[in-house]
Amino acid sequence: MKFRPLHDRVLIKVLDSEEKTAGGIIIPDTAKEKPQEGEVVAVGPGAKNEDGKLTPMDVKVGDTVLFGKWSGT
Fold first, then answer.
1. CA–CA distance from 73 to each of 10, 65, 68 (Å)?
2. How far apart are alpha carbons 45 and 59 in whole angstroms?
3. Which residues contact 55 (CB under 8 A, 6 or more apart)?
4. Tell me, what's the pLDDT at 2?
5. Topology (CATH level 3) of domain 1-15+33-48+55-73
6. Cα–Cα distance between 14 and 61 in angstroms, integer?
7. What's the confidence (pLDDT) of residue 31?
8. For residue 27, how many other CB atoms are within 10 A of its CB?
9. CA 42 to CA 60: how far, in whole Å?
10. Which of 8, 38, 67, 72 is positioned for an S-S bond with 12, CB 3.0–4.6 A?
11. 3-class DSSP assignment, residue 12
12. What distance in Å separates the CA atoms of residue 57 and residue 7, rounded to the nearest whole number?
């Protein structure tokens, strides 16, 4: 299924969090935080400014982005 967000919206696929730290310590499921990193799957055309001109988006499909824990809710 293909998605096409409207205006300045972005669709992000959340990436899985690491199960081990860099030092090799395994993180249990209860201690994991929600992932805050994702891959851009679809991007809208952009928002219109006061003059009615389209402002292009800064991200593109395939970019890896960081987002706030409660963003988009």
1. 13, 17, 10
2. 11
3. 8, 46, 47, 48, 49
4. 84
5. 10 Kd Chaperonin, Protein Cpn10; Chain O (2.30.33)
6. 14
7. 58
8. 13
9. 8
10. 38
11. strand
12. 9
